[in-house]
Amino acid sequence: MARKYRVMFVDGVLYPLHLAISANWKVHYYTADMAANPTHREEERRFLDDMASVLGEGAITALGEVSRWMGLDYAGIDFAMRPDGAVLLFEANATMIVHPPGPEAIWDYRRAPVARVLEAVQRMVRARSEQVRRPS
Description:
Elements: E1 2-10, E2 13-22, H1 38-49, H2 51-55, H3 57-70, E3 74-81, E4 87-93, H4 108-133
Antiparallel strand pairs: 1-2, 1-3, 3-4
């Protein structure tokens, strides 16, 4: 099974957003058939609840370096984990969308992680707005 992780960077902080697991190597969340597989959803829940434990210290450090290297206030990264624990980068850019989960109860575990990303973006925008309003 192929796994595609997505982590968002908001104002220098890493936020896990989703893990898509698929038999197809070209993994997209909504074609991964996560709804049909409770085992895959449980694996995703573990990632969302404790990203550092799931990915390991080396991967968290690497993701932080990608965030610093990009130098953006908001961005996302799609990646896989290699067998040796290294991050395999698929895509990193400032146009990653945060899709809210559907209304079905099976997605309840995704609601708080999505909300954390959206709240972080709102905080960042408010803080930047305050900086602009304050005279130098």
